[in-house]
Amino acid sequence: MIFQLSVRSCPLSRKTNLTGWRVLRSCLHSSSICALPGTGPGPGCLYSPEELSSVSTEKPHHTPVLLKEVLHNLDVQPGQVVLDMTFGGGGHTKAILNMVPEVKLLALDRDPTAISLAEQLATETFGRVKPLLGRFSELNALLSNMKIKPGSIDAVLLDAGCSSMQMDQATRGFSLSKDGPLDMRMDGERYPDMPSAADVVNTLDQQALASIFTAYGEERHARKIASAIVEARRVSPITRTQQLASVVAGSFPAAVVHARKDRLHRPAHIATKTFQALRIFVNDELNELHAGLRAARDALTPGGRLCVITFHSLEDRLVKRFLQGDDLSNLDQYHFSPRKQGTQKKKNDGENIYWLPLRRKVIIPEKDDVKENPRGRSAKLRAALRR
Fold it and tell me: Which parts of the sequence are annotated with region: Disordered (predicted)?
């Protein structure tokens, strides 16, 4: 099957897969897309000095998700080396530092704004925090540059998805509730040639868009939404978050728009899954998550602990099967279908050769925690011990 793009064609299977992101990104680049008005991210919205106060007194920018469960399962001890693979606003990192001051903490994030916060925290903690700017897929090289050998880290936390800090900045283009440029690039301006969400919705054809919404948003009405986007952009390029949200909502009757509920049966915007799909696609999140899991496995010492927080079923399914030992080396053909026989790497006694689950069942937030932090309502935590 060939997806006919508006500028040139690009080969891709009918069912958008995980490596399809690289193919479509290549098509976007080769199409010589002109810069669309309003698509670039705004200036870095860094925190004020008051918000960057000391680790002992600062009120977190957001409430860390599943904090007590993370601290319990990481079980950090004095003198250990801990890797926070998604520093974000630093909530989990600061809690670890407060609980166990005698630790060295490596803070990774692909977002330059987050790394600015990590650098400030490093100064305040006299070097106990080491910021690392990069993606999950770049972690091995970053650790090597720091002379940190494989198998030398005691605990790893990987918090997947979009941070509250990114969602709260309208200029980043992630939020449905705040109008801003339709950007969604977690890396900011680190990779200027990386397509934004506006590039995607204004360039790919209807079938390609529908495939993205189906694969990464699990959206049942993907074709209807894709059709509405194509019709709307013929009148004017879609460059703003509220503009896209209105286009999606306008493709449904009012009764349908107001009928959608989240998992807690609360009203949910009809464009939520569309925004999720675009964000995952633009940032290649599933491939990056898989790369991060492999990097964590390589970095952990035997007996080291891994905690992974996910926020939707695609992420959780990937993590679950990785920890079970499934062969995910060919993600473009995997599609998270029912597991095939013989794909797990196990010892003779049937146990996974890499991981020992700390809990068999996934950990979810308690009701009181959801009331305090509604954004964490869909969070799931999986914890395992490196063999």
Answer: 367-387
